[in-house]
Design a protein that fits this description.
The protein is mainly β. The chain has no helices and eleven strands.
């Protein structure tokens, strides 16, 4: 069963990536005073719109984890042409112990990529964490 995505969508600027083995590096910019909520059920999934241009080289296409590790790196094999990598993430972040306000961000990140000789082997993607209504 395929679930309908219900989070926000972020389209980041296009990037170039060198042919061959490389990585997409995803990180989040948290609001001031917030940190990741260790123990919460983080989730990240990824896919390429065109495997002939950019192939994700992990066996799995998603990962659940409770110890946040960012930047999160996705290994790829860049071949030729252009494609869009789509990364869905659910992250949890909280402020200080006194107020203990915890928030969740469900986000789909669209990363347009062009395979280009001389480019970096690392596509860095930074997304500002937000919560519903902000």
């Amino acid at each position: 069963m395929v679930r309908k995505f219900r989070g926000r969508v972020v389209d980041v600027p296009a990037q170039s990536i060198a042919p061959g083995a490389g990585k997409i590096s995803l990180s989040f910019i948290l609001p001031a005073g917030y940190k990741y909520n260790a123990g919460a059920p983080f989730y990240i999934s990824w896919r390429s719109a065109d495997d002939a241009a950019l192939k994700i080289t992990t066996k799995e296409s998603a990962q659940n984890f409770s110890e946040p590790r960012f930047p999160f790196e996705i290994p790829v094999e860049a071949v030729k042409g252009q494609t869009t990598a789509t990364i869905d993430a659910v992250i949890y972040f909280c402020n200080d112990e006194k107020e203990k306000v915890c928030l969740v961000d469900s986000v789909r990140v669209n990363v347009p990529l062009e395979v280009k000789a001389g480019a970096s082997k690392l596509a860095k993607v930074e997304v500002t964490a937000k919560y519903r209504g902000k």
